[in-house]
Design a protein that fits this description.
alpha+beta; five-stranded antiparallel beta sheet; 18% strand
């Protein structure tokens, strides 16, 4: 039998029914689902040192379990000595089993390692059912060896859902285990 991620199994068995009851969906296809998770990191200092991009790509690969790609600049910015086509960041797009596995590790092991953690803000929704979360240190992930990093950097994590409203998306992400702050 093929492996199924724990959160994916829970989504199919429990979360779909809970969301159908909460919002009164008549069809299973109306229930919002998590489409993808994008983990990205901007490396502004990479203009001067190209090795920083390699480190960022390697760290994102270790954290997510999938090879990261370097993102390149789209236009020239003279004030930052930036030329079109220079690498300035790294990103990974997770879908399917890896997406659920990453979300599970983020919720169960990484976020509780944040110092003085009270929960994540509910203000990161964009109005279309997507949520953005900023992480200030990559060392909250247990896969990162603190002795081998050259500098502490943050990253942005974007959760793309099929929900139409922020309320539906928040309910979905809460059911999946994201610990939002109680206001």
């Amino acid at each position: 039998m093929a492996y199924v991620a724990r959160l994916k199994k829970e989504y199919k068995e429990r979360i779909i029914d809970a969301l159908k009851q909460e919002f009164g969906y008549k069809n299973v296809m109306e229930v919002p689902k998590l489409k993808k998770i994008v983990v990205s990191r901007g490396v502004g200092a990479a203009v001067a040192d190209k090795k920083l991009i390699d480190h960022a790509v390697e760290e994102l690969g270790i954290i997510t379990g999938q090879k990261a790609v370097a993102t390149i600049s789209k236009k020239d910015v003279a004030a930052f000595k930036l030329r079109k086509g220079m690498p300035i960041g790294a990103k990974v797009t997770l879908r399917g089993e890896r997406m659920y596995e990453f979300l599970d590790r983020l919720v169960t092991t990484a976020l509780p390692r944040v110092r003085d953690f009270q929960g994540i803000r509910a203000t990161g929704f964009d109005g279309r059912g997507n949520y953005n979360l900023g992480v200030t240190e990559q060392i909250i992930f247990p896969e990162i060896n603190i002795d081998k990093i050259n500098r502490i950097n943050g990253m942005d994590i974007t959760f793309v859902t099929s929900a139409d409203t922020d309320k539906e998306a928040k309910s979905l992400l809460t059911e999946l285990g994201l610990p939002f702050k109680k206001n």
